[in-house]
Design brief:
flat, mainly alpha
Length: 285
């Protein structure tokens, strides 16, 4: 919801009209799709979840590890939720006379969510997991909110999504770090499996720094026709600073890995919350 609403709010900030019915129905499309993806990941990752360490943000639920008898019902839930998301997307397109590209966007988003762990593509098992998470945190979630409110995906959103892509990459790498051993045993091809935890901490830090540079550029050069990005640029130094601290802390003491991963990931969520609050403030003042 944080990232979906962010896309909606940005569209409103740059002049799109507010329509609560569109926003609510749009979120119903997103919610059912994301929930289906969660079930799908648990379903197809069950064989390796027994090796994973559960954290607040990663490690799977291990429900199917302890209750394999639930597999048939989970499979039915997955089919139902993806079908519902696509049907809601079709209803939205027809009800609000949106271009058919919106419906195509919904279908493609569901296919990507399904294919993250499900055959035949099994994207995370073939080295595309980080790419999917990057897209999910920008074009698929924020993009859905923006598309719902604006009626199109245009240049302002493409520019606005650049730091979101970078945040998505950082989140993806941080979440993969605790699962390195389980992913390796399950034959997942992730960056941390191919390299090491230090590399993931380093790339995450760089991604957060580049995201900050994006907001600084938005503020200095007025790239987007939107209110000042100065406050966002300043706040974005917080997750970047935590990224720097996390790398240094891990290098000095690798046993702190779980703690610094939690802090760094939570800080990115905090950034998304700040963006939502800031845009609400802009709209109300």
């Amino acid at each position: 919801m944080l990232v979906y609403i962010l896309g909606v709010l940005f569209a409103l900030v740059i002049g799109s009209p507010f329509d609560l019915s569109k926003i609510v129905l749009g979120y119903a499309i997103v919610f059912t799709s994301v929930l289906a993806t969660g079930y799908t990941n648990n379903y197809y990752d069950a064989p390796i979840d027994q090796y994973a360490t559960q954290t607040a943000f990663s490690g799977g639920s291990s429900i199917l590890v302890h209750h394999p008898e639930y597999r048939p019902i989970i499979r039915k839930i997955i089919v139902f939720l993806y079908s519902l998301s696509i049907l809601l997307g079709l209803a939205f397109t027809m009800l609000f006379s949106y271009p058919w590209t919106f419906f195509a966007f919904v279908v493609l988003s569901n296919i990507i969510g399904l294919s993250y762990t499900a055959p035949p593509l099994r994207l995370v098992y073939h080295g595309f997991g980080e790419l999917v998470t990057m897209l999910g945190a920008s074009y698929l979630l924020a993009g859905a909110g923006y598309f719902v409110a604006k009626g199109t995906i245009d240049t302002p959103f493409v520019l606005f999504s650049l730091p979101l892509l970078l945040f998505g990459l950082a989140v993806s790498l941080y979440l993969e770090i605790p699962d390195k051993n389980a992913d390796r045993q399950g034959h997942k091809i992730t960056w941390v499996v191919l390299t090491n935890e230090r590399f993931s901490f380093m790339i995450s830090m760089i991604s957060l720094g580049l995201a900050t540079l994006c907001y600084v550029a938005f503020s200095l050069f007025h790239i987007l026709d939107a209110p000042s990005f100065l406050a966002i640029a300043l706040f974005s130094f917080i997750p970047f600073a935590i990224g720097v601290y996390s790398l240094q802390k891990y290098i000095k003491d690798p046993t702190t890995m779980m703690t610094v991963v939690f802090r760094a990931t939570a800080c990115i969520f905090l950034m998304w919350i700040f963006l939502d609050i800031y845009f609400v403030y802009i709209l109300l003042t």
